[in-house]
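Consider the tokenized backbone below.
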């Protein structure tokens, strides 16, 4: 297993059990795990969610150097890590629960997010949904590898799939005010498309109608240091002002016209 000082910008290491070990100078506000039992309502084969207490992924939220903690809190953002094991759920590849972000007061746009793959290969899914009519008029995905940065636009449900046979480790920076809205994806039994080991992408049978699955392109945004060469942790800790647009979703359309086209194509506004 590689070390992460170059690509991640912080000196964490692999533990013997496949989780992560952090140096003593790093503070982690929250550590959570997601067992198979939590994924049962969203799985293609719920009966495959056994044993129910098996950990599918870990989340380490609010990571900062002790000396920088107060200063970074003033940015209104935090840095997080997600570690997902390559444990398929029956036919289906390992995935996160998925959610929609909460909305600032009096805003029709919810908060965006930045993700960065540190190890492994990921599929990031973005979609709309109508839980009343049980339809999705837009669903797209992109594939990302180590160093790739992914900007998650406002107003789209999203989740991450471990697309390989190794652990998947990815980071994110997100506004402190964000809350995850999990119920819509849970009610629809997962995303509009599911990724399987034997058949690739398949439409979710719990939807009455879904759009064709779109393949999205990766982008780089050097003006915000969102390039493969610059670790997201470095940008967040040294120049957090370059990411400050995340706390004000109204700025997104002007700053990311290419991604705003995706939001408009999805009729998500």
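A designed sequence for it:
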């Amino acid at each position: 297993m590689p070390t992460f000082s170059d690509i991640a910008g912080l000196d964490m290491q692999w533990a013997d059990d496949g989780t992560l070990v952090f140096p003593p100078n790093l503070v982690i506000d929250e550590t959570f795990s997601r067992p198979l039992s939590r994924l049962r309502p969203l799985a293609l084969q719920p009966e495959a969610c056994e044993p129910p207490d098996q950990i599918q992924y870990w989340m380490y939220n609010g990571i900062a150097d002790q000396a920088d903690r107060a200063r970074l809190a003033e940015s209104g953002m935090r840095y997080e890590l997600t570690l997902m094991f390559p444990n398929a759920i029956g036919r289906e590849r390992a995935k996160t629960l998925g959610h929609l972000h909460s909305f600032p007061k009096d805003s029709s746009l919810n908060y965006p997010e930045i993700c960065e793959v540190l190890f492994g290969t990921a599929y990031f899914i973005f979609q709309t949904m109508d839980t009343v009519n049980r339809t999705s008029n837009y669903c797209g995905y992109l594939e990302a590898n180590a160093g790739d940065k992914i900007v998650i636009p406002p107003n789209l449900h999203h989740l991450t799939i471990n697309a390989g046979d190794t652990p998947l480790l990815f980071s994110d920076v997100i506004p402190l005010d964000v809350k995850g809205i999990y119920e819509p994806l849970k009610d629809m039994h997962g995303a509009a498309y599911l990724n399987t080991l034997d058949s690739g992408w398949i439409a979710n049978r719990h939807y009455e109608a879904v759009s064709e699955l779109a393949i999205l392109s990766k982008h780089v945004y050097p003006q915000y240091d969102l390039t493969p060469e610059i670790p997201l942790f470095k940008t967040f800790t040294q120049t957090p002002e370059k990411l400050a647009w995340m706390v004000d979703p109204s700025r997104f359309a002007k700053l990311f016209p290419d991604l705003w086209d995706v939001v408009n194509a999805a009729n998500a506004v």
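The domain at 13-265 is CATH 2.60.120.10 (Jelly Rolls).
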